[in-house]
Structure formats: structure tokens, C-alpha cells
Amino acid sequence: MHFITGGYFNGKAKWVRDQFGLSERSDYLWLSAYQSNKLELPFQNKEKQLLIIEGVEQYIKKWIDLDIDIQIIRAQAKDLVEKAVNWEQAHKNNKLILIGTDISKGIVPIEKKDRQWRDITGWVYQDIVANSDSVYMVWYGISKRIK
């Protein structure tokens, strides 16, 4: 599993497209919260060996907006990370790339839901990073490997 993070509109998606040569490939599935793609069991996909999930923080925000308890959200996210690891291990060519915007920097949000979103996103990112083979930060189109 690979995790790509950085600020909003800092070139994460373009970096992934370039780094993994997606313009020359067709064996991937790209799910984006920004395009309103639903995240319904993508790990059951047997046709595509490269799975890219963009907007991890936005999928988390949707759970927050549904007023789901933060502990349940964390448990659901951990379950998805575990399913991702199992999916990758099921076949040697399976590869997962997660793209999540860093929303932890800056002013602490005033609204409770926004603080919960920031906190849960941080916890989920920690779980993702713990299970990732590599982690990259992309700022202004420049990447730095941090794991």
C-alpha cells in the first residue's frame, strides 16, 4: 500500500498519474471522493490490479456528516485498511494507492464536527501509514518520501 498526502491542490493526483505511468495503463480503477465516487467494497474488484482511492479525508467527512459516532468511524476505517492489506496480499500484482489531503495544519476549527473530522482523519492516516509500504508528501508538485 502506498499513501500520498499533502495540501489541497498541491499536485498529488498528477504526481500519482506520472509516477505510476497511468497514461500508458488501463489496468487501474480510480475512485475519487471529489468526483462523488462511492467507496463500496472496492477490494472485491478482480479485474483491476491497481486501485487508487483519492480524497480519503472526504470519505471520512461523509461519515462525520452522517452523525456516526467517532469510535464507530475509526473502527470502520481500521476495517477498510485491514481489507486493503488483505486485498493487496491476495495477489502479488495487487497495489493500492491512497491519496489523502493533509487537513491537520492551521487553525483549530471552531465547529465541533470540523474538529472531529480533523481528529479522525489524523487517526485514520496514522493507521494507513502504519500499514503502508511507502508514504510520500507532495507539496507544489514536489514529492518527498517519508517512509
UniProtKB/TrEMBL annotation:
Any Pfam family: CobU
Iron is among the record's keywords: no
A GO biological process held by the record: cobalamin biosynthetic process
Record's keyword terms, sorted: ATP-binding, Cobalamin biosynthesis, GTP-binding, Kinase, Nucleotide-binding, Nucleotidyltransferase, Transferase
Pathway(s): Cofactor biosynthesis; adenosylcobalamin biosynthesis; adenosylcobalamin from cob(II)yrinate a,c-diamide: step 5/7; Cofactor biosynthesis; adenosylcobalamin biosynthesis; adenosylcobalamin from cob(II)yrinate a,c-diamide: step 6/7
EC number: 2.7.1.156, 2.7.7.62
Single GO MF annotation: GTP binding
Reaction catalyzed: adenosylcob(III)inamide + GTP = adenosylcob(III)inamide phosphate + GDP + H(+); adenosylcob(III)inamide phosphate + GTP + H(+) = adenosylcob(III)inamide-GDP + diphosphate; adenosylcob(III)inamide + ATP = adenosylcob(III)inamide phosphate + ADP + H(+)
InterPro entries: CobU/CobP (IPR003203), P-loop_NTPase (IPR027417)
SUPFAM superfamilies recorded: P-loop containing nucleoside triphosphate hydrolases (SSF52540)
Protein's UniProt keywords contain Mitochondrion: no
Protein family according to the UniProt entry: Belongs to the CobU/CobP family.
Function: Catalyzes ATP-dependent phosphorylation of adenosylcobinamide and addition of GMP to adenosylcobinamide phosphate.
Stated name of the protein: Adenosylcobinamide kinase
Organism encoding this protein: Heyndrickxia oleronia
UniProt lineage: Bacteria, Bacillati, Bacillota, Bacilli, Bacillales
